[in-house]
């Protein structure tokens, strides 16, 4: 049985709207953390994606962060200019360029990560551990559902 009905659908119960709005509010609240390190939220996201091995190439980063490849190339250019990442062509395929954090890039990512963790711990202070675990589990389940559904038409 479907959960949503046209007559009752509104932003305050829309999963998409609520996730987007929470992401926006969190981003605004964390801007000072990133600004103190001289970077933007998307630049930090790229550094962290590389750090965790999710963004080994600019194309990987674009997919992981939901950015177009052209914008990601410009972002990678900026990170390289700042000395936070390096690009290296692979010996097997010279067309493939691998990204890696420099020591300074890793240091910036880790400093920001500590602040991000502190922010989330503050925001979730009145949540029980079970509530946080449930939220994470449900979001992971939703991510999986949407990954399977990507490209498939809705009803």
TrEMBL record:
What are the HTH marR-type domain coordinates in residue numbering?
12-144
Q: Matching Pfam families, A to Z?
A: MarR
Keywords of this entry: DNA-binding, Transcription, Transcription regulation
Alphabetical list of Gene3D superfamilies matching this protein: Winged helix-like DNA-binding domain superfamily/Winged helix DNA-binding domain
Alphabetical list of InterPro entries matching this protein: HTH_MarR-typ, Tscrpt_reg_MarR-type_CS, WH-like_DNA-bd_sf, WH_DNA-bd_sf
Q: Which organism is it from?
A: Sphingomonas cynarae
Spell out the protein name for this chain.
MarR family transcriptional regulator
The keyword Transcription regulation belongs to this UniProt entry's keyword annotation: yes
């Amino acid at each position: 049985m479907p959960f949503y009905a046209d007559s009752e659908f509104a932003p305050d119960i829309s999963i998409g709207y609520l996730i987007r709005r929470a992401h926006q509010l969190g981003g605004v609240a964390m801007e000072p953390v990133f600004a103190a390190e001289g970077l933007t939220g998307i630049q930090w996201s790229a550094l962290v994606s590389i750090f965790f091995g999710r963004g080994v190439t600019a194309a990987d980063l674009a997919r992981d962060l939901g950015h177009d490849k052209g914008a990601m190339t410009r972002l990678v250019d900026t990170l390289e200019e700042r000395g936070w990442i390096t690009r290296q062509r692979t010996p097997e395929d010279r067309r493939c360029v691998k990204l890696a954090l420099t020591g300074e890039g890793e240091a910036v990512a880790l400093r920001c990560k500590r602040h991000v963790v502190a922010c989330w711990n503050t925001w979730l202070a009145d949540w029980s551990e079970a509530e946080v675990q449930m939220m994470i589990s449900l979001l992971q389940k939703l991510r999986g559902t949407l990954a399977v559904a990507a490209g498939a038409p809705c009803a």
